[in-house]
Every structure is written in C-alpha cells, then in structure tokens.
Design a protein that fits this description.
By secondary structure, this protein is α+β, with helices and mostly antiparallel strands. It has 7 helices and 6 strands; from the N terminus they run E-E-E-E-H-E-H-H-E-H-H-H-H. Helices cover 46% and strands 12% of the residues.
Length: 175
C-alpha cells in the first residue's frame, strides 16, 4: 500500500472456513520476518484460545502467493516446524490465493483507498488497519457465511460443535 513515506506491506492471515482475518502485520520492507510474525500470531492465538475453541494446527494447509516472503527458506522452515502444509500457486495463478486476493482487494477499496492517512506514512496507517480488520471481522456481512460476520459465524459453529444452545433458545427454555 503506498504511503507518503514509501510503501507499507500488509499481509493478512485468513481462516478460509470462517473468512475471519486472524492476524496481520505491517512493514516497510518486504521480507520473511513480518510474514512470519503474522503467522506466529495466529499459531499462538489458535493454540491458546479458550478450551472450546482450540484448533488443531498439525496438517493445516497454508495457502500463499509466490512472493519472496512466503517462499523464503526461513518461512518454509517455520511452516515445516509447525506442521503446516504449504500450498503456493504459480505466478499469475489465483487458484490457491483467490480468497486472499479478494480480502486484499476489499481492504484496498474499503479502507486504504478512502483514507488519506495512508498517504501520510506507515505508522498513521497502522491504526486504520486495526479498525478495518475489526469492522471486517465483526460487522461486515459475508454472503458465503449466510450474511453473517466471521466472528458471528465462528461463534455459531463452536456453539453447535460444543452443544451450547444459542442465547435465544436458552432464554426460551428458561421462560
């Protein structure tokens, strides 16, 4: 994303099941370190969530583009150490990363293109990334999720998976 102080890179880590953005990072240099930072945040989050929402990591497919941060030896080694299976499309091939490209397009259109603060520099843009990710995860409705937000969709899934009655049904039973 271009800013007045140069280019700022923003990778998002997205759960394709719920369309939820699990983590992100920003950097003014395009290297493996900031891509790995975003991945490590997700791994920590998924391993240390509430007992009812811990997610098995081993064997999870990590889709990415063929950018240098994702194809570096360091990042590839991190995937292997964490038990993740890499899936990288070829250049110009959107099969593996179509969902990520869609999210990036939405980000550019819904946040970055509308906000002049992105043009003032990477630090000013960071809070806008936080705001947009929060809105995307909690407010924005997704047709593929039955017109629910990713957070709402995940909550419904985990409640059903764990045998928890939704609040509406529980309140009717209590009455």
């Amino acid at each position: 994303m271009p800013t007045g102080a140069g280019f700022t890179y923003v990778p998002f880590v997205i759960d394709l099941f719920s369309r939820r953005i699990l983590s992100w990072a920003t950097s003014t240099s395009h290297d493996a370190a900031f891509v790995e930072e975003a991945l490590r945040m997700v791994l920590w989050q998924r391993r240390n969530g509430s007992e009812s929402r811990k997610v098995a990591i081993q064997g999870t497919i990590h889709y990415s583009d063929a950018g240098s941060g994702h194809t570096s030896q360091r990042f590839t080694q991190t995937l292997a150490e964490e038990g993740l299976v890499p899936s990288i499309g070829t250049i110009g091939d959107a099969f593996d990363n179509a969902a990520a490209e869609t999210v990036m397009g939405l980000f550019r259109n819904e946040a970055a293109a509308r906000d002049s603060r992105f043009r003032s520099g990477p630090l000013a843009a960071e809070s806008d990334v936080v705001d947009w990710v929060h809105w995307y995860n909690t407010v924005r409705l997704h047709s593929t999720l039955g017109y629910r937000s990713p957070v709402e969709f995940e909550k419904l899934y985990y409640d059903e998976f764990n045998g928890v009655l939704p609040d509406v049904a529980a309140s009717k039973l209590a009455a």
